[in-house]
Amino acid sequence: MRLIVKFYFGIEHEVSFINAQGAYADWTNTNFADLEGIVAKLPLYPTDYPQLRIGDAGIKHKRWYVEGFERFDMNGKVIDCLPKGIEIRTTIHDSIKGAVAELTESFRMLRNASRAAEFTPAAISFNPYRTRFVPEPPLNIYEKRQRSRSPEVQTADIPMLTQGPDISLSSPQLTTAQIIDAGQKLTYYSPYLVPFSFSSPFYGGRLWEGLSVRTFHRTGVRPAAMVFIDDPDRMIDSSPSLTQKARIPAEIGRIEFKAFDICSNLQHYARLATLLKGLILDRHLTGRAVVPDAQMHQRSAQFGFDDSHIFKTADRILAAVAEVLSQPEQKQCLEVLKQELVTRRTPAHAMIEAFEKSNTIEESLLRSAAADA
């Protein structure tokens, strides 16, 4: 008899914006106060805590918060935050459906608040115009010292160019060893999972030669998956990190997949979370890795399912997952992913087609958002 594992789910979703002038909003034309003014209009739910982490800077005090590059003075006090967008995070749910429903409602509220401030939400996984982020003024001594704390802090300039979701799963039935093994498994199979989400086909203000600039530049130097544990003896020293010490009790045992591109269709997160759950439950696929294969991710980013190896391995993953997930809702999610695989189509293809019709990146983003509304 197969053990029934009870999972809990959470989603973090980063939102970028088109400003009142019709331009993509980033730190070059938008300041922290512009986006914090939107967050200020949104409610605070006291019962969310201690599920959600507020953080040392105090910026993450709601389900919505301004995501960006925090600047510190020599005494460690936050003095600014260069914004890239607003992140939405859900509370912990005992079903994928519940997490997606909360995310959908939170996005609706954010969309209304942002439009009142003349910002229109958009979904793209890599800044379509900027190819580098260089902090100005340069980092001071305190900030440089802080960047030595972990591999992720050392590469904190990369997230300023990227937008992406974190899909988290946890189960009290999994041991620390099983949680780490799940993280290694998701890390290994990440290049074959991520094309289902690709949504960053622009680079430097023009069409890129592939489907996911984010994956090409990010995954390898940044983690594909991360697990949060509370056992210092089980921590793995790697770059990028696979294991991280849980910062709050609610993080203990969390398996977080970080390599997907952002999804303009929020319902697509239900399919991706179902895929991750099934892959964790599968007992036949044997691949494991502590750090992501950067070259395989770049190959995937450029060619997606048109690459025969990527296609065949993704097909094998779907087949394995289908063996362990039998509920009608789960099967429906997998059928949608199977259709995307068979047609070799990713969300980036629709963005490219919209761009070819409008010849402007901003218009293609607005069209994609409208199609998924």
Can you give a write-up of this model?
The protein has 373 residues and is of the alpha+beta class. 39% of the residues lie in helices and 15% in strands. The protein has twelve helices and ten strands. Strands 1, 2, 3, 4, 5, 8, 9 and 10 form an eight-stranded mixed sheet that branches. Strands 6-7 form a two-stranded antiparallel sheet. β6 and β7 (206-207) form a beta hairpin. α5 (176-193) packs across α9 (308-324), α7 (268-281) packs across α10 and α11 crosses α12 (361-372). The radius of gyration is 20 Å and the shape is globular. The relative contact order is 0.14.
Write out key terms for the chains shown:
eight-stranded mixed beta sheet; 12 helices; alpha+beta; two-stranded antiparallel sheet; 10 strands; 373 residues
Uncertain residue segments = none
Gross morphology: globular
Class derived from helix and strand content: alpha+beta
* Percent of residues in helices: 25-40%
Continuous helix count: 12
Tell me the radius of gyration. 20 Å
Order of helices and strands: EHEEHEHHEHEEHEEEHHHHHH
Mean pLDDT value: 94
End-to-end gap: 42 Å
The major pleated sheet works out as: 8 strands, mixed
Q: Strand fraction band?
A: 15-25%
By DSSP, the count of extended strands is: 10
